[in-house]
Design a protein that fits this description.
Elements (H helix, E strand, L loop, with lengths): L1 E7 L5 H11 L2 E4 H7 L6 H10 L12 H9 L2 H29 L4 E5 L3 H4 L7 E6 L2 H10 L5 H9 L4 H6 L3 E4 L4 H22 L1
Parallel strand pairs: 1-3, 1-4, 2-3, 4-5
């Protein structure tokens, strides 16, 4: 298995890169989806969140009220740390099982693990490459406003709540510049795929 850690700030174009790699044959695993899965009704994760934050973060049907939880932790660093301390280990364990399954199904599989919070979660998976999708804060804020309908204030707050560009770039093996056109992002991703195939071929 060839394991890629793909990260980048909100609205940085990670999904475009992941989609292109999947078109080439990669297996895509999305950390955000796993984070939702580990707090579904009946899970240990949801029970721990309820114990930590109370019934106020539950919807009437007993599922997690994400809006209530995000409002609770967004401006409270200690609460956010407590939430991450519950969710991150569960996601790490589940992702490890999915990697093992992908490897068993196809030993030469290229697995793209899409992790927005790779820096913040301090992941220690044995990545062959860490790929950072990079666009300026200005570009990402504009995308959040124009495409996702955020207010300018909300867009800026979401960007500022994540790791800095400097922190992300410091762990990058490959940086894909997503500030320009879609074609520019895709061509860089194609070059990345060619590099991966060469490295796999060299492994024999």
């Amino acid at each position: 298995m060839y394991l890629i850690g793909l990260t980048g700030g909100i609205a940085s174009g990670k999904s475009t890169i992941a989609r292109r790699l999947v078109e080439h044959g990669a297996v895509h695993i999305d950390a955000d989806q796993l984070a939702r899965k580990v707090v579904e009704p009946g899970t240990e994760g949801l029970a721990q969140i309820r114990e930590a934050f109370g019934d106020a973060v539950l919807a009437p049907d007993g599922s997690l009220d994400r809006k209530a939880l995000s409002e609770l932790v967004f401006s409270d660093a200690a609460a956010l740390d407590r939430l991450n301390g519950i969710v991150h280990p569960l996601v790490r364990e589940l992702s490890g099982r999915l990697f093992a399954a992908a490897d068993a199904a196809r030993p030469n599989a290229v697995v793209v693990y899409d992790v927005p919070l790779l820096v913040e979660a301090e992941l220690d998976h044995p990545f062959d490459l860490v790929v950072v999708a990079h666009a300026t804060k200005k570009t990402r804020a504009e995308r959040l406003v124009d495409i996702r309908g955020f207010s300018e204030e909300h867009a800026q707050a979401r960007i500022d709540a994540q790791a800095s560009d400097t922190q992300r770039l410091s762990i990058a093996d490959v940086v894909i510049d997503t500030d320009g056109t879609l074609g520019h992002t895709v061509s860089q991703t194609d070059a990345l795929w060619a590099r991966i195939r060469e490295e796999l071929a060299a492994r024999g």
